[in-house]
Amino acid sequence: DTGVSQNPRHKITKRGQNVTFRCDPISEHNRLYWYRQTLGQGPEFLTYFQNEAQLEKSRLLSDRFSAERPKGSFSTLEIQRTEQGDSAMYLCASSPRSGENQETQYFGPGTRLLVL
Amino acid sequence: GENVEQHPSTLSVQEGDSAVIKCTYSDSASNYFPWYKQELGKRPQLIIDIRSNVGEKKDQRIAVTLNKTAKHFSLHITETQPEDSAVYFCAASPSYNFNKFYFGSGTKLNVKP
């Protein structure tokens, strides 16, 4: 499968613990996005990277959240001191550098987080 | 920022009938409108998109129409099949920040055989 991949697919943790998710974009896609999706809602934008630079962060991304893309390839999203309200599906997407489909975002399967 | 509203939240149709899902947006600068299909437990998949320089786009049984004046766009699925059952999301992206998608809240489509 040459699409966007995310690991782990599921994560159960206790409140107060830290968790880290990984996203591997489609090869040669230079833009990478993180979204959060709660039950019955559409994805909500969290942040995006162009290469290794984090260019925009949503107000939804509190101080407990941090995202990195150190080499402009894979990205990690860390949540510190998790709260029950963090329970959601975390989706990653990527877009190609240029061309006709540069606006299109291709999504990964997501990481479902449950905070107990 | 942009606000996208989607209706209906659930839609049940008989196999072979047509289904229409509607979205409205608030930011007149939005110029890219993708539609995603998400089956239970799977990733959102792009099924069709439209840019503001056209009013309609069709791909086999799926079509999307855009009314820029009224700021609404619709997804039309004809000859529905049970495998069309899924949650459909519309999104809008402003020209000044095409990296940021604003999604509707989704429509759960159920196609009854």
Give the overall shape of chain B: globular
Strand proportion of chain B = over 45%
How many helices of chain A in DSSP terms?
0
Q: Calculate the terminal CA-CA distance of chain A, rounded to whole Å.
A: 32 Å
- Average pLDDT number of chain A: 92
Report the C-alpha radius of gyration of chain A, rounded. 14 Å
Structural class of chain A: mainly beta
Average pLDDT of chain B: 94
The level of helicity of chain B is under 10%
> In terms of per-residue confidence, which ranges of chain A show pLDDT below 50 for 5 or more consecutive residues?
none
Rounded to the nearest angstrom, the radius of gyration of chain B is 13 Å
Sheet with the most strands of chain B? 6 strands, mixed
Going by helix content, strand content and strand pairing, the class of chain B is mainly beta
In brief:
Chain A has no helices and eleven strands. Chain A is mainly beta.
